[in-house]
Design goal:
Strand content: 5-15%
Strand order of the largest sheet: 1-2
Number of helices: 3
Largest sheet: 2 strands, antiparallel
Radius of gyration: 14 Å
CATH class: Mainly Alpha
Distance between the termini: 35 Å
Shape: globular
Amino acid sequence: MAKPAVVHVDPEILGGTPVFVGTRVPAKTLFDYLEAGDPLDDFLNDFPSVTREQAVAALELAREMTESHAAVAR
């Protein structure tokens, strides 16, 4: 069963920047907040058009991608 898209690219929205589906919020903004040490709730409060489910799904996707591309230690 395919997971619904959480982030998409549309050349008509922010010049094709990956954004959360149904919003104009760049996915990168979530990672910028977390990198700065801000809690997820701060991001969600500042960007109410992004749901908690979307943000968590984006983080899960990032984790899955990281795990699938991890280098094998030698």
